[in-house]
Design a protein that fits this description.
The structure is a homotrimer of 145-residue chains.
Chain A lengths: L1 E9 L5 E4 L1 H11 L4 E7 L4 E6 L3 H14 L25 H10 L2 E7 L2 E2 L6 E6 L5 E10 L1
Antiparallel strand pairs in A: 1-8, 2-7, 3-5, 3-8, 4-7, 5-6
Amino acid sequence: MIDVEEKTIKTKREFQLIDITNEIKKYVLKKKVHEGEITVTTKHTTTSIRVNENECRLLKDIKHYLDEIVPKDREYLHDDIEKRKNCPKEEPKNAHAHLKALLMGASETLPIKNGKLSLGKWQRIFFVELDGPRKRTFSIELIAK
Amino acid sequence: MIDVEEKTIKTKREFQLIDITNEIKKYVLKKKVHEGEITVTTKHTTTSIRVNENECRLLKDIKHYLDEIVPKDREYLHDDIEKRKNCPKEEPKNAHAHLKALLMGASETLPIKNGKLSLGKWQRIFFVELDGPRKRTFSIELIAK
Amino acid sequence: MIDVEEKTIKTKREFQLIDITNEIKKYVLKKKVHEGEITVTTKHTTTSIRVNENECRLLKDIKHYLDEIVPKDREYLHDDIEKRKNCPKEEPKNAHAHLKALLMGASETLPIKNGKLSLGKWQRIFFVELDGPRKRTFSIELIAK
């Protein structure tokens, strides 16, 4: 079976790690497949899809770390809105979010085994909001038998 | 349909973000598939495949940022060519490019929906040259129905 | 053919780049497929799957670089074990390993062409141990014809 579905979420903060694991698990169960793989891909350039542990203090470490290696309040050419062609004045200054998304990446692929999403004990799938809050979309691509 | 194709490009500078989106879009249209996924994988260890926005000032920010977090002109063991076994003297000093490629990654997977590559509004696929100019190759893997 | 298999390895050090390319190549040959793709996904949140060159001095550069951009001995909220709920006291202080895994990623997808894993000249697949030594597992997802 090949299936592609889009899911929409509303993020609530500028930076947010949203655990979408249960939604992906339910989707896989509903498709009644046995074995294969699933890919989660974001549809935005200031968000990312990552797999990590959902421990609340670690999630804060991740926020602090990303803000440290890609500071928001530096001078970026992309954030000098007036010098960009055809750029609306209300455009957010989000070069830092693009750079964080560049480092982390847009997609991850995970196995399906014995009819369900096969994650390690601590693995959770996160939609990473880097320039919210906004309405956001990600895609699930299923290839399985 | 399962299809794998290699594409060759000639990069022009040491660092270059080459927008390969139109080429991937055309390839998908030509295959006349309805739904599935496409993966783009680089064939080199000093290049990367990334999805981000093609805004010319942002592309400069990306170059500056990567040069800052992985400086070229530091001492790397890999760049001390004489100490490496069986290493030709003309070997480029490119440890920084390997490290940038390590952070960013070699592949991204994107959805195909309604017969075409389904990207978000600002998403573009880039072949990231980190140690050019050179002749480079990337692979497209299509799994779709 | 769709096939998913798990492989277990024993890592030997805290940080280790384990070249799993030959194992993946053998697996692909054994499956007798012609064309498609293979994804390698780690099952842990303090490990990563990456593609890079296996040059021994570069592997040391990678270790030094990762330790530099994500130092182990800083204060991380995740490492203050007593403040975490239901956390056993013997839990390792491994926030740095989670952050390194976040930057690098959990999976990579590579092409299969002419019946074998199609890698570039210098490309090798690494299981990246960031908090060993431990028994670790990764998954291979094959979609090919």
